[in-house]
Every structure is written in structure tokens, then in C-alpha cells.
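Long-time lurker, first post. I've been practising inverse folding by hand and with some scripts of my own, and I keep getting stuck on stretches where the C-alpha cells seem ambiguous. Below is the full C-alpha cell string for one chain I'm working on. Before anyone asks, I'm not after the true native sequence, just a reasonable design that respects the backbone. If someone could post their per-position residues I'd love to compare against what I wrote down in my notebook.
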């Protein structure tokens, strides 16, 4: 009889435990990710630009404006990216990167007068490591998301750019 009672008690505790676990999972899954409201930064300044290496396959030069770097409570690293071509063409974008999902988003493009033009197509896009055009992959892998984990704050991201890679990437 004692064996039967212990079996019933064990079964009852397992049912309560699995119900609590199910409640936790439902609670966790019912709270979808929510992006915070984004404020447009100031135009990039020469003195706050941090260069970063992309690959030998491009002659373009790449910079992140260190003054615009932020890590939001929503888990997004935001920054202004400046790309300069060898002929002097200049591309400025305000972007976000989600380390958790390996995605990026362009919020706006910079104009010559320092103002911003909101991106028409600003959905989250998967970051791919393609040989010729890999600046987003470089930012993800080498600076902002070492080993797939988001940097803790803007200072950590700036430090990684200054040093040429995140310290967690060293083997």
C-alpha cells in the first residue's frame, strides 16, 4: 500500500511540475520581442569615426561613428555606418543589428546636409557572410556579436573597433 501511495504522490508531483513548466513556457513565448522606439542620431563627425577591416576583396573603407553606437534594452546594437569608395563616393546609413537572430536593419540613409532620409524598406534581414560585400558580417562576427553574443554596452563595441576585433574572438 505504501508503494502505491508513493507512486501516486510521485505522479502527482510530476503533473504539477510539468504544468508549472508549461505555464512558464507559455508565458515566455507569449511575450514577443518588441523593438524600442528609435531616435535618429546626429550626422557622423570625422573625429568620432572608427575604421574597421572588412576583407581584401574590397577597396572601400568602412567606418562606424563611435558617438552613435548604442546597445538598446531590446537587444539591438545601433550605429551609423560610413562607407567610402576609392573614388570618393560616400554612403552613410543608420542601422541596427540583432545578435540573437543574426539580422540587421537600415533605419535611414544620410544626406549630404547631415539630415536623414528614412529607409523605404527597413525590415530585418539575415546577415550573410559573402566574400565581396561582407561589412555587416564583419561587424557581427568581429565586433558587435562575439561568438553570437551581444556586446554589453557601447563602450565594449567601441573598444572592439579600436582594437580591431573583440577580445572574445581571440583564439
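-- Answer (accepted) --
I ran through it position by position. Result:
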Amino acid at each position: 500500500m505504501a508503494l502505491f501511495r508513493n507512486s501516486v504522490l510521485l505522479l502527482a508531483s510530476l503533473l504539477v511540475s510539468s504544468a508549472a513548466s508549461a505555464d512558464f513556457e507559455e508565458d515566455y513565448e507569449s511575450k514577443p520581442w518588441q523593438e524600442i522606439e528609435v531616435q535618429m542620431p546626429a550626422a557622423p563627425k570625422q573625429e568620432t569615426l572608427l575604421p574597421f577591416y572588412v576583407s581584401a576583396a574590397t577597396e572601400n573603407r568602412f567606418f562606424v561613428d563611435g558617438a552613435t553606437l548604442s546597445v538598446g534594452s531590446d537587444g539591438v546594437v545601433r550605429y551609423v555606418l560610413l562607407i567610402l569608395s576609392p573614388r570618393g563616393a560616400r554612403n552613410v546609413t543608420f542601422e541596427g543589428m540583432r545578435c540573437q537572430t543574426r539580422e540587421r536593419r537600415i533605419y535611414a540613409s544620410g544626406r549630404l546636409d547631415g539630415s536623414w532620409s528614412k529607409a523605404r524598406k527597413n525590415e530585418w534581414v539575415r546577415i550573410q557572410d559573402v566574400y565581396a560585400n561582407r561589412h555587416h558580417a564583419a561587424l557581427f562576427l568581429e565586433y558587435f556579436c562575439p561568438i553570437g553574443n551581444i556586446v554589453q554596452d557601447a563602450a565594449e563595441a567601441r573598444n572592439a573597433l579600436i582594437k580591431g576585433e573583440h577580445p572574445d574572438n581571440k583564439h
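A couple of notes from the structure itself: The beta strands are 49-52, 61-65, 70-71, 76-84, 90-98, 103-110, 116-118, 125-126. Confidence is low (pLDDT under 50) at residues 8-12. Happy to go over any region you disagree with.
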